[in-house]
Specification:
single chain, 407 residues, mainly alpha, 16 helices, 4% strand, elongated
């Protein structure tokens, strides 16, 4: 019963996380667009705000932004914050549910570093917290006065964190934790900087006092960082399901390329909405980053190197220390004959370039390690093999069930 409950829990958490993320990203993109689209308004002093006229849903909208106290400030201000908080909360719950609860399956790779689940948890949470502390110190330092300098330091830092995680966790775990560092920075910006500063501005406006411009500037800087982080974070979260992206020894370079390409796409739209023309070169550089990422992933995957006649890279299975396992011969025969042609370092099934989800089932140790996945995918759901292409029989599934559910 536990595997079924865990699977449904994962589904519900992922569903909630995606819904919250859609709301947050949508709101973030809209307000960045709105800020860029503001034009001078007759009833707002120059450089103190502006307005935008928009059409949607069969009606017209007049949106105004005030940087000084308007004639009337209602009590029912709408605060856009829970989209961010809910995204982070559901994301962290999903991280715990998938990677910490099943650390030996998804997070710990003995071929990278032999860790206990507790140690892996502490490194993961500690790395995420450290990411925010470092970023916040940079923004509050003299470097924070320069958007370019801050962006450069943060870029190098995120890539360095990706490199660190890659040498501690499984490839999949490294990618997801890099994304978690960036996502935590984004939500902490909202919770610890943007919202508190906004409340100070509102309090000053209600008191009839001029708000300190430093609060608005700090909030705008953090909001801009969030905007440029968004697409790279979405890429990292999605790529969690595409092992070709994180199985390369140069996964940290893929992170760097995603940061550059994703940020430049946002630059294009921010400039376009601001009436500064179409910076098409941004798409050209982003496309070049994509091509470079594809080239790196393709030429460093075991299957591609074999096809090119290049020497094989050291795989997780080859690097992992061998341990004595008790996998009955009938189980090994079934998995090797029905599953391993795809789930091996160099898949031999036509059209498969890399093991799905990065899961290897080509050794007794790998089979034992992935027992929970075999139970769920091949026994409880019959999701694997896809469409039963290798014709695994009901009797074979019964053998796997007896082994996977044995105490």
């Amino acid at each position: 019963m536990e595997p079924i409950l865990h699977e449904f829990g994962s589904l519900l958490l992922r569903w909630a996380h995606i819904i919250a993320g859609m709301a947050w990203v949508g709101a973030s993109f809209y307000f960045m667009h709105l800020d860029a689209a503001l034009r001078p308004a007759a009833d707002i002093p120059a450089d103190k705000g502006g307005e935008a006229w928009e059409v949607h849903g069969g009606g017209f909208y007049q949106v105004k932004k005030y940087l000084v106290a308007p004639s009337h400030l209602p009590e029912h201000l709408m605060w856009h914050k829970w989209e961010s908080y809910t995204t982070w909360i559901t994301g962290m719950l999903l991280l715990v549910w998938t990677y910490y609860y099943q650390a030996t399956l998804f997070l710990i790779d003995p071929g990278v570093m032999a860790l206990t689940p507790l140690t892996a948890f502490l490194i993961g949470v500690g790395g995420i917290a450290f990411g925010w502390v470092f970023y916040d110190l940079v923004c509050r330092s003299p470097l924070g006065k320069s958007a370019v300098a801050t962006g450069g330091v943060v870029f190098v830092f995120v890539v360095a964190m990706a490199y660190f995680f890659q040498h501690v966790f499984s490839p999949r775990g490294a990618f997801i934790h890099t994304g978690a560092v960036m996502a935590t920075i984004m939500t902490a910006n909202v919770f610890l900087v943007i919202q508190p500063n906004q409340r100070k501005v509102v309090a000053a406006l209600k008191a009839g006092l001029p708000p300190d411009p430093k609060y608005g500037k700090a909030g705008k800087l953090r909001s801009s960082h969030n905007n440029y982080f968004t697409l790279p974070v979405v890429f990292l979260m999605m790529s969690n399901h595409y092992p070709l992206t994180y199985s390369t020894p140069y996964a940290y370079v893929i992170v760097a390329l995603a940061l550059i390409g994703g940020a430049l796409i946002r630059v294009f739209f921010n400039q376009r909405h601001g009436g500064n023309g179409n910076w098409w070169w941004c798409w050209g550089v982003a496309a070049a980053c994509l091509v470079a990422a594809v080239a790196i992933c393709a030429t460093t995957s075991p299957a591609a190197r074999a096809a090119l006649g290049l020497p094989s890279l050291v795989t997780t299975a080859e690097a992992a220390p061998t341990t004595e396992v008790n996998v009955p011969a009938p189980v090994q025969d079934i998995v090797m004959g029905r599953c391993a042609m795809c789930h091996m370092a160099e898949p031999v099934y036509e059209g498969i370039a890399i093991a799905p989800r990065g899961i290897l089932l080509d050794t007794p140790e790998a089979i034992a390690r992935n027992k929970p996945l075999i139970l769920m995918q091949a026994v409880l759901t019959h999701a694997m093999p896809p469409n039963n292409v290798t014709e695994i029989s009901p009797e074979d599934r019964a053998v796997l069930k007896a082994w996977a559910t044995a105490p």
